[in-house]
Write a structure and sequence with these properties.
This protein is α/β, with parallel strands linked by helices and 487 residues long. It contains 13 helices and 18 strands. Helix 1 crosses helix 13.
């Protein structure tokens, strides 16, 4: 596992890239979707030569939020949160090994960057994706079914040509599936009429770079959304518009343009310890807690907030204030077009209970992403799915959908990646937990501890009984005596 990986253009053969020699022999694992989560799984699965795995992705190649690869924008987790390091730092697909193969290890060393640029993370992931022959792009998944006669899943797919047109149909049988279909841009209902507005630039932040030129030349631009992407888009627009004629408006629902919680103990909410604690809570408690933890993952990086203030302040040096309005605590009630060239937003201030109209020439919807619904891709398995009180799929501690015992008795499972926030908490989409989750999936799926995982990962004890059985007796804190009487 310490040997350097092949050059991306000359991938080496690997057992898990080959079709089963017997057409009736199912694969061990089929991955659906190739984003960072399933790419992490594929990288950690690569050395397991006994595992027959294949990954399908509809897109022509790997791409990670290409519309938001702004100059200087950094990933909000340290570079150690790459695809494999936190599960196996000796794996050949680490970020440091990527730098080594590019002769960039010493420049990175002297740069002293713990948080790398987003574009560099994307380039690293593309290097890994180009190097793993188990990945099959241009493959669209059409259906997933359970075959009770063969005790396997059937995965139907369409192979696409370079233009995205159907080229061939195929079917794969597998004992296990892992869904890594990621998230999709979210547009709140009041803003949906804007998306189809002809001739008026209305774009989701995920597509910002493709429309950046038109947005920079628009007379007045409004950014909707007070999270990290909204802050980055606003900063980029601000930096490229003339002093005194910025003509920018930035609004968001949160009561402040709030910094993300980034204290060291606060970050322990993104550890396996907190994930296990959260999963063990009752469903209603999980829902309440998740809603209250928004600032752990929806706030703005303090460095970005400082850069915005610095840029605004710089524009006051010669007198006057920049023509930029920043208003938190505002929601968009309705939206529509004025003729064919302008947009009118009907706003409401949540605390003041006041309303106003804002006319603008372009809108960037920095309204975030949502987990892609699993219903379409799992329609064929719906009779076998077990759901919670809110009709969401139940997910066990090892990231497996809870299915009919007839399926699990056959040793078959469907795993999910970044689709389990309601059961595993705020860490579900966090890149820092991707390698640990992938290792958990592989250990569970194979029944072997290919990747030894830590028993304790946080100084915080999230529950009264957390970790007491995991710490050696000589290092255990004073025991808490459970109360048997009412308080």
């Amino acid at each position: 596992m310490n040997t350097p990986p092949p050059h991306p253009n000359t991938p080496s053969p690997h057992p898990n890239t080959l079709s089963p020699t017997d057409a009736d022999t199912p694969r061990d694992l089929v991955g659906i979707g190739v984003g960072p989560c399933n790419l992490s799984l594929a990288a950690l699965a690569h050395p397991l030569t006994e595992l027959d795995a294949v990954f399908y992705e509809q897109r022509p190649a790997f791409a990670w939020h290409p519309g938001l690869l702004l100059d200087g924008a950094r990933v909000q987790v340290p570079f150690l949160a790459d695809l494999v390091t936190l599960a196996d730092p000796t794996n050949p697909w680490t970020f440091l090994n990527y730098l080594r193969t590019r002769d960039r290890l010493f420049p990175f060393y002297f740069a002293e960057r713990f948080h790398i640029e987003r574009a560099e993370y994307d380039a690293y992931c593309r290097w890994v994706a180009d190097s793993l022959p188990a990945l099959h792009f241009h493959h669209q998944i059409d259906a997933v079914r359970w075959n009770p006669e063969r005790d396997t899943f059937e995965v139907d797919y369409t192979q696409l040509d370079a233009d995205g047109e159907a080229e061939a149909l195929g079917r794969t049988h597998t004992r296990n599936i892992v869904l890594g279909i990621g998230t999709e841009p979210h547009v709140p209902d009041p803003l949906r009429p804007l998306v189809d507005a002809p001739g008026v630039p209305v774009v989701h932040a995920s597509d910002y770079l493709r429309h950046r030129t038109a947005l920079l030349t628009a007379d007045h631009v409004t950014v909707v959304g007070s999270g990290q992407s909204g802050a980055e888009v606003f900063l980029d627009l601000l930096r490229h518009r003339p002093t005194g004629r910025e003509r920018l408006h930035w609004i968001g629902r949160t009561e402040a343009f709030a910094p993300m919680e980034y204290s060291k103990l606060g970050l322990e909410h993104f550890t396996p310890d907190h994930t296990r604690y959260f999963h063990a809570l009752p469903e209603a408690a999980r829902d309440r807690l998740l809603a209250a933890q928004w600032q752990l993952h929806k706030g703005i990086d303090a460095t970005t907030l400082a850069a915005i203030h610095d840029e605004l302040y710089r524009r006051t040096l010669h007198g006057g204030w920049p023509d930029a309005v920043l208003t938190p605590g505002v929601r968009v009630r309705t939206a529509g077009r004025i003729a064919t060239t302008r947009i009118e937003l009907h706003l409401e201030h949540i605390q003041q209970n006041t309303r106003a109209r804002l006319t603008t020439d372009a809108v960037v919807l920095a309204t975030g992403h949502r987990e892609r619904p699993l219903d379409r891709i799992l329609a064929g398995l719906d009779p076998y799915l077990r759901r919670d009180n809110a009709e969401r799929p139940r997910v066990d501690a090892d990231f497996r959908l809870v299915l009919d015992p007839r399926i699990t008795a056959a040793g078959c499972h469907v795993y999910v990646q970044n689709a389990e926030r309601h059961t595993h908490g705020v860490g579900a989409p966090d890149l820092g937990l991707a390698a640990w989750r992938s290792a958990t999936v592989l250990n569970t799926l194979t029944g072997k501890e290919h990747y030894p995982l830590p028993q304790r990962t946080a100084f915080t004890t999230f529950g009264l009984e957390d970790h007491r059985s995991q710490i050696p007796p000589t290092r255990r804190p004073a025991e808490l005596t459970p109360l048997t009487d009412g308080i």
